[in-house]
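hey can u check if this looks right to u? its 489 residues, i copy pasted from the old doc so theres a chance i mangled smth
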Amino acid sequence: MAEKIPEVKYTEIFINNEFVKSVSGKTFTVINPATEEKICDVQEGDKVDVDIAVKAAREAFKLGSTWRTMDASARGKMIDKLADLVERDIQYLASLDTLESGKPYMMATLGVQHAVKVLRYYAGYADKIHGKTMPVDGPFFCYTRHEPIGVCGQIIPWNYATAILTFKLGAALACGCTCVVKPAEQTPLTGIYMGKLIKEAGFPQGVVNIIPGYGPTAGAAISEHMDVDKIAFTGSTEVGRLIQQASGKSNLKRVSLELGGKSPLIVLADADLDFAVELAHQALFINMGQVCCAGSRTFVHEDIYDEFVKRSVERASRRSVGDPFDPTSESGPQVNKEQFHKIMDLIESGKKDGAKLECGGGRHGDKGYFIQSTVFSDVKDDMRIAKEEIFGPVQQILKFKTVEEAIERANATSYGLAAGVITQDIDKALTVANSIQAGTVWVNIYNLLTAQTPFGGFKMSGNGRELGEYGLNEYTEVKTVTIRMPRKM
């Protein structure tokens, strides 16, 4: 059962397994996007707090520490224990997520369930990270070690706060790294609560530290810090650029980025229409469109275009928008006022640029940051709504004639996070999948992320990968050790 008004139990900074106040004494307010009312005040970390957290993480990482000398299998058991605790508190975490983000409770529950699976996956990998021996020329014994990279800054987005935290934390901890986490200022409460579970799971002091705060202060301090070895960031391309620059200006720390997208979903003429309409609808409207890999450019073959638009409008008009704790609500509010106004501005640009507004386009209700489910047809590639990441409940439907044309137009973007194709023809499916410039391509499914499969982008959608075995590569350094032997063995 959802806790509609969950008790907020923790609002402080988490360093060395203790909750503490910010050095400055500053706080910031967390707002309920469904009511526009204050939830609570949270301690605001800044550069000084980040320095303390990084020092704690460095101490926990030093040679001979409890964490560095722990058996890898014991490290895995600890991560698995954390998964048990997240699973135990799934209703509370999901309720907290719904309260602060506006995500429908059922979707929030699925997000926490995904987090549990990711933690269990990486728990199993902790004692399976190893190097190789190489038969080099001469009387030498040569091997490689995959060593933990060190202190990792983990900057978490607001749209899937709990799940994406585990994407980063699970891999880093499995490899033996220590972490300084900054949850999004819009949704810090679930991240802060994870500190309580980390301590309960038995992690040594300083292994995981959590600093709520703002991007330009706490986030920048982590990115610029000379004693942070790696940054993992999920968020906008604009901020990703700043983090990359901060790395170059500081210690050239390793950076992995999962950034924006304008992902194409191509619907071929042979697609089952009812199936395609529903899949395209969910690809865009899930989580109120606040998904980095949302299918936000729906390309539909001209032979089925008109009927597809008609049925898509009918489906969007039926989508229930309302209280995210109401089990009948498919959509809740946008996360905050800033996102609300950005989306409304882009909707207006679509009207001005000549796209046909088929439904929606306005505010839903008179309280909270709710937006009507919106569909545009007759969208052209040069329109703002076809080029910019809207991150809202706005479906754009574009027409194409040939598969070759659809591929060319799908690739004509600076983004390359994800893509999809709906067809019953396996040859065409593979042609599209192998031709699209994107880190993930889905065929007859969309938005399927699993613990086992890597996720990340091409082009300005970022670099590096999270999830799966590939996600571990971001958190290790490969060391080569060569030993002279008395003779060739």
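The first helix runs from residue 47 to 61.
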